[in-house]
């Protein structure tokens, strides 16, 4: 069973930055498509970014495009979500998820999920 671990959340002022990390002890994340999701209180979970297992093609939802960057560091077996120019509406619990299918695109099917890390953007 693939276990995902997120870290890097916290409290940040509007306009600030955070970098979230997603790692998987004992598994090679490069074999998986990885998605970053978030869920704010009272709202549905949404996928905000993903990176495919083949070619590391990336996707961003419009609300984060130009501010967030997803990337892989295979040497560290970690997928990052760099978040810049944070806004109060980015406040949510952020999750990473893994898709075991080897594809050139981001699918809508994720097989494994982390426990989440809280991001709060507030002055």
Short description:
With about 120 residues, this protein is an all-beta fold.
Number of beta-strand segments: 11
| Beta-strand fraction estimate | 35-45%
Structural class: mainly beta
Rg from C-alpha positions? 13 Å
Helices and strands, in order, run as EEEEEEEEEEE
* Main sheet properties: 7 strands, mixed
> How many helices?
0
Mean pLDDT: 95
Termini Cα gap: 40 Å
Unreliable residue runs:
none
**DSSP helix fraction:** under 10%
Morphology: globular
Summarize the topology.
Elements (H helix, E strand, L loop, with lengths): L4 E3 L2 E3 L5 E6 L9 E7 L6 E6 L6 E3 L7 E6 L4 E6 L8 E8 L12 E2 L3 E5 L2
Parallel strand pairs: 2-11
Antiparallel strand pairs: 1-3, 3-8, 4-5, 4-9, 5-6, 7-8, 9-10, 9-11
Characterise this structure.
With 123 residues, this protein is mainly β. Helices cover 0% and strands 45% of the residues. It has strands at residues 5-7, 10-12, 18-23, 33-39, 46-51, 58-60, 68-73, 78-83, 92-99, 112-113, 117-121. The strands form two sheets. Strands 2, 4, 5, 6, 9, 10 and 11 form a seven-stranded mixed sheet that branches. Strands 1-3-8-7 form a four-stranded antiparallel sheet, with no helix packed on it. It is globular, with a radius of gyration of 13 Å. The mean pLDDT is 95.
